[in-house]
Every structure is written in structure tokens, then in C-alpha cells.
Amino acid sequence: MIKIRNWKLNIKNHNWGKLVLELAVVFLGVTAGLIVNNWNLQRQEIEKENKYLQGFLKDVNKNIIELENYLKSDSLWFNDANSILKTLGNKNIQIDSARVAIDLILKIKKIKIHTDTYENIINSDNLSIISNFNLKNQIINYHKTIKSVDLFDDFFYNYYNDYIMPVIFSEYNVLNGTFNDPDIIKTTKFSNAFVFYYSMMQQQKEAYTELLAKSCKLRDKLERYKLNN
Predict the structure, then answer these.
(1) Within 10 Å of residue 49's Cβ, how many Cβ atoms?
(2) Residue 186: Cβ within 10 Å count
(3) Where are the domains of the chain?
(4) In this predicted structure, what is the pLDDT of residue 7?
(5) What is the DSSP string of 7-73?
(6) 111-129, pLDDT tens digit by residue?
């Protein structure tokens, strides 16, 4: 009984206000620490997201310049190629025009498409850091288009090496610009080589034009998002 009375007495004599204050200070301290820690994590995530978005914008702007320059030179190629195509259709192509046709075929090229930021964010598994759902989807779809363009370019180059170049190397002397047999320019073999190459160039032009349109659209989206944030 004495112990119980002493326990009750100790409770009554205890400074509960001080204890509650101490508990409140501890609680607020822990809560504040969590808030500050979460704020720091959120700030780091935002900084990382902005870094990636700036990288995307840089890559897209490079791609736009590359695509615009290529398509500009591409239009000049088609101006010359259309004239050759017409003479082939009329079956009255001359040696000089045939040489131009060979020169046009030998100008095969493709652009360097920049995807460094996308590869970085995918390899580090940080794609979820892009907080805007629509922007993230647009970035993903954009790089799917790039993948399709790359696949076509690879197919084009393989086709060129396997079917077009053997015709040129077997029938044409690149050093002095002469044909082993001048009559080759009036054959189906020669016309098919040029026509098929022309067709592949058309498809490449369409693919690059589509990619340019998507590049401009993504650039505008990234710039608007940057301004709004």
C-alpha cells in the first residue's frame, strides 16, 4: 500500500507540462528533420529531371539542325535524280547522264542522330524521374521513331552494299569515269540499279521528314515545359 501511495504521489508531483513540452520538441524535431530530408530529396529529383530535360532539348536541337541540312541537300539530289529518271524512262540516256547517275548513287549518306541523353536515362533506369506524363510519353515515342529510322538506314546500307555497289564496281571504272561496256547504260540492269536506289532515297527522305516534324514538336514541348517550371 505504501508503494502504491508513493507511486501516486510521484505521478502527482511529476511536472507533466515539462514532459509534454519535451515530447513536443522531440516530435517537432523529428518531423522537421523528415520534412527537410524530403525537401532535399525532392529538390535533388527536380534538379536531376531538369538536367535530363536540358539534355533532351540539346539533343533535339542538334537533330533538327542535322535533319534540316540533310533534307536541304537532299532536295538538290532529287532535282538531278529526277532528270536522270526521266531519261531512263524514255530509254535515251547518254554517257554523260549515266556518269551523273553513278555520281548520284555514290553519294549515299546518313545523318548522326543524337540520343545520348535518352540512352543515359534508360541505362540508369531514371525514366520515371520525368514527372509530366504526356512529356514522358512524347519522349519515348520520339525515340521509337529514331529507332525505326535507324533500322531503315541499316537496311538501306545493306541493300546498297549487296545489290547496288556490285553493279557499279563490275561495270564502271570510278577512277576515270568510264564504263567497261557503254551499252550497259541502256540495259534493265543499269536502270533497275538507279530506280531502286532512287526509291530507297525517297523512303529515307520521308522517314527523315517525319523525324524532323517530331523533333520540332518535342522541342516546342520541352521549351514550354521549361518556361512553365
Answers:
(1) 17
(2) 15
(3) 50-228
(4) 45
(5) HHHHHHHS-HHHHHHHHHHHHHHHHHHHHHHHHHHHHHHHHHHHHHHHHHHHHHHHHHHHHHHHHHH
(6) 889 999 999 999 998 888 8
